[in-house]
Each structure stands twice: as C-alpha cells, then as structure tokens.
Design a protein that fits this description.
heterodimer; A: mainly beta; lipopolysaccharide transport protein A fold; B: mainly beta; 1 helix
C-alpha cells in the first residue's frame, strides 16, 4: 500500500497533464471600434468604466500585445494597464498606458523625414514603461535600453542606462524635420553609441561615436546632447577623453541629428573637436 | 392548465408576493417526501425579489412557455423557454436580457440563461453575448460562459471562454481579475 499511493498520485498527475497537454490556451483580443487601437493575445482582462468618459483595461498575456496605429505605438509585456477614451462619441485614443512583466518593450513608429515611404523607429526596453499621452511623456524604470533607427536618414543610436524619461513630439501636427523625441533624460551609468551614415561621392561613409557617462540629456530644441560625470567618448578616429573621464561633454547635432561638434570640459582637461568626424 | 394558474405558480416559485412570514423556530415533524410532478404552462411573466432587507427586485422574467416542477402543491424549480426580461442591481434596473431558455431558482436567487444569451445595457450601449449566463441576484453579478463577447460603444472584447460582469456591464473581466 505504501508503494501504491505514490504510483496512484503519479498516475493522477499524469492524467491531469495529459488532459490539458498540447492544447494551446485560448487567447482573445480587445479591439477599438475602428480597429485603430487593439490589445491582443490576451489571457486575462478586466474592464472598468471610469467616471470621466474613460475606461481602464487591465490585461495579461504571454505576452500581451498593444497597438495604437494613429499614434504609431506598439508595445508588448505580460501585463498592461491601458486607460482610453471610451469611444462612445469620439476616437478610442489612449490616455495612459503602463506595461510591465516579461520583457516589456514600447516602440514608436513614424515616417522618416528623409523618405516618407520608410519608417523611423524608437524602441524602448525597460521592466516598466509608463506612457502618458497628454504630455507625451514616457517614464522608464531601470535598466533601460533605447534604440533609435532611421535607415533612410542613415541614423542609428543606442542608449543603455538606468532610470529614464523621454518626451515625444505629438504625432500631429507633423514636424517637417520628422523629429520624434523632444527630450530624453537617462541616468547612469550610461553607455551610448551614435552612428551616422553619409553619402559622399557615391560612397557611404559611416561615423560612430560611443562612450559612457553618468547622465545623458538630449534636448531637441537645441539639438544638443549633454553628457555629465565621468565622460568617456570616442569615435572611429579619436578617443576624446584620453582614457580618463571628463566632467562633461556637449555634443552638438545638426537638423538630421548627426554630430557637428563635441566639446569636453573638466578633467582630463579642456579639449574640443569641431567637425564631428564628418 | 389555465395561464393564470401557471403565472400564479411561477410567481410563487420566483418569490413574489408580500413579505415572508417570520420563521418558525419550532422544528416541524419530518414530513414524508412528496412525489414531484411537472406541469407545462403557456406564456407568462414574474418578478423575483430578494429575501433580504426591503426585498428589492432582482429580475423580471417573461417567457413563452414554461415547465414547473411541483413538490406537492409547492413549486420547486422552473424552466422557461423563450425568455426575456430585466436584471436589477440594488433595486434599480441595470440591463435587459433575452435567451433561448432560462432556469430560475428562487430560493438561491439565481437565474440561469441558456442559449444565444444577450444582456443589453442601453445607457452606455453595452452588450454581452454568450452561450450560458448565470445571474446571481445576491451579488448582482453575471457569470458568463462559452464564446463570451462584450461589445461596448468603443470596443469589442473576446471571444473569451468565461467572463464575469456586473449587471450594468460597467465592469467586466475574466474570473481571475474580476473585482466588482
């Protein structure tokens, strides 16, 4: 009898798994009335109508997938809380979205200013992403990876850091320069690379800046990247810090967000480079 | 059976009428179980009230035909075909419903809706569609099963295997997430 009990238990467990084995769990979608907004691949959901004409969806999936086509947003995570307009008398636009769990990512897709037939993308990876549409603010929990890619403009940037905050330009009105990011503030330690490709005499010429610092702040209004704290910066051609961190660096960009100049200050001494390796 | 008698029996089954008599503390001698018998009725309607407090209405139900099970002279359960009616939450009408069949258990305050179930809330244009729904009068919750879809003015949710919702459909979710 002592031997029989474990065997019966094992048989019971096997039977239980056998009944459910191989059957994919049923998933479902939440789709806005015009198909513009959708939450897909869901295993769980909760809908709550709020007082101010909005609704809150709390959903889960492996992973749950969200898209808001009019804004060019896509996202994935195991858990999402999305507040939207209820759509009773207008569009079903997102008010706020918080995603976490699994390997969350949040992506902004927008036509490239260099070629409207192609898209530029900003992809943000963080354990928790909190997007507020009214301010176009994205708060990112540590650790953060951000990648910006615009093949038509020959631009690729990659940032790794801890907590971050990005502010986007509104989708409308469209900006002539196609800029997506209004500002980006990333706490460190930060590592980064900025890669630009320029066509010269029919040949592609690539320039890469990479380095590290304690904090990186990008402001599109001034087209400047300010790097502070233990700044190390190097290009394909130069190492600008001499292997020891400077106190700060100011990277000036042009309208295409390609490096025009770099100015370092503080230890290991003032240094300046013009031309940005173009 | 006369329609008025059927309606009277159904009303008794669904708990209509005046306030309940005070419960008798003295145990009655064990009665010999009486044989159950069924009767068929024509179209009718009834209102289910809660046994609690000031006895708010839980639901109104209309049916095209019904079969009632009687235990002695007392109705035991009711099964209805071609049902429609209203669901109430805290004494206020929250939504309307229709289904191919319905089963009411007045003492448990539970209404089962079976086959092509539709629950409609008109103020916010919400509709719940499913194969089978249980309305629990005590909690005001709808527990829907089988091909559950919820259509709101702005969104469509589903199809889900199971979802719970308030009678007004202002809150709804899969059972693991639902908190009324």
């Amino acid at each position: 009898m002592k031997l029989l009990a474990p065997i019966l238990l094992l048989a019971s467990i096997t039977a239980t798994f056998g009944q459910s084995g191989g059957r994919a769990p049923q998933t479902f979608d939440i789709v806005g009335k015009d198909g513009d907004l959708a939450l897909r691949n869901l295993a769980t959901q909760r809908y709550a109508r709020n007082a101010e004409g909005t609704v809150t969806f709390t959903v889960g999936g492996s992973p749950a997938k969200g898209e808001w086509k009019a804004r060019g947003l896509t996202m994935e995570a195991n858990r999402m809380t999305v507040i939207t307009q209820d759509g009773a008398s207008g569009p079903t636009s997102v008010v706020r979205a918080t995603i976490e769990g699994g390997r969350p990512w949040f992506e902004v897709l927008q036509p490239s200013a260099a070629n409207a037939q192609t898209n530029q993308t900003i992809r943000l990876e963080s354990p928790k992403v909190d997007y507020t549409a009214t301010t176009e603010t994205i708060v990112l929990a540590a650790p953060v990876q951000a990648v910006g890619r615009d093949a038509a403009a020959g631009r690729l940037w990659n940032l790794n850091g801890q907590n971050g905050k990005a502010v986007l330009y509104p989708r409308e009105p469209k900006r002539a320069d196609g800029a997506v990011v209004r500002s980006f503030d990333l706490a460190g330690p930060v590592t980064f690379s900025l890669e630009s490709t320029t066509q010269r005499a029919g040949a592609a010429e690539k320039t890469t800046y990479k380095g590290s610092c304690n904090r990186l702040v990008f402001d599109d209004a001034t087209k400047q990247i300010r790097l502070t704290g233990n700044v190390l910066l190097e290009t394909d051609r130069f190492t600008l810090s001499g292997g020891k961190g400077a106190e700060s660096a100011l990277v000036q960009l042009d309208d295409q967000l390609k490096v025009v100049s770099v100015e370092l200050s503080g230890s290991p001494g003032e240094s300046r480079m013009q031309g940005g390796g173009r | 059976m006369k329609p008025w008698l059927a309606a009277l029996l159904a009303a008794a089954l669904l708990g209509c009428g005046g306030p309940k008599k005070a419960e008798q503390p003295t145990p009655e001698p064990e009665a010999k179980p009486e044989a159950k018998r069924g009767i068929l009725t024509e179209a009718g309607k009834a209102t289910q009230r809660s046994a609690e407090g000031d006895r708010p209405v839980l639901w109104n139900i209309h049916w095209e035909a019904a079969s009632l099970t009687l235990e002695g002279d007392k109705p035991d359960t009711g099964s209805f075909r071609g049902v429609s009616g209203d669901l109430f939450r805290e004494g206020r009408k929250a939504s309307t419903f229709k289904a191919e069949r319905g089963e009411a258990d007045g003492s448990a305050e539970v209404l089962e809706l079976i086959g092509s179930v539709e629950i409609l809330e008109t103020e916010h244009q919400a509709t719940l569609l499913c194969d089978h729904a249980t309305y629990e009068g005590k909690t005001g919750m709808v527990k829907a099963r089988g091909n559950v879809r919820i259509l709101y003015a702005g969104f469509t949710i589903g199809p889900m295997p199971e979802a719970w919702a308030t009678a007004a459909l202002d809150q709804a979710g899969t059972p693991d997430t639902f908190k009324p």
